[in-house]
Design goal:
alpha+beta, GMP Synthetase, Chain A, domain 3, three-stranded mixed beta sheet, 27% helix, 24% strand
Length: 104
């Protein structure tokens, strides 16, 4: 059974920002998820952003995203595209992330 967008987002919660110690989904860094079926395998495309254009954790977050999604059954390829539009703001965080970071 191919992964759903919800399953992909839940899996991406394993990727933790090493500076903020919050997962990239709750931080609001994942802007889009697209899943294409290629024969019996899935190709997952992720649009994500960083908290800043010069985010030093960017390469690590991209690689970890590819690793956790690539480990899902029947996933052939994972593509992560970094976008900066719209720019990330704390308003994109979930309530859980705000609680973790003490932002009220």
């Amino acid at each position: 059974m191919p992964p759903t967008e919800d399953h992909v987002r839940e899996t991406l919660k394993q990727v933790i920002d090493p500076e903020l110690f919050v997962n990239i989904v709750d931080l609001g860094l994942v802007y889009g998820v697209e899943i294409e079926q290629l024969d019996s395998k899935s190709h997952i495309k992720i649009d994500m952003t960083m908290t800043s254009p010069a985010c030093p954790a960017g390469p690590q977050l991209i690689q970890q995203s590819k690793t956790v999604l690539g480990a899902l059954p029947d996933v052939a390829n994972v593509e992560v595209k970094v976008v900066m539009t719209p720019p990330w703001t704390p308003d994109l965080m979930t309530e859980d992330a705000r609680d973790q970071l003490g932002i009220f």
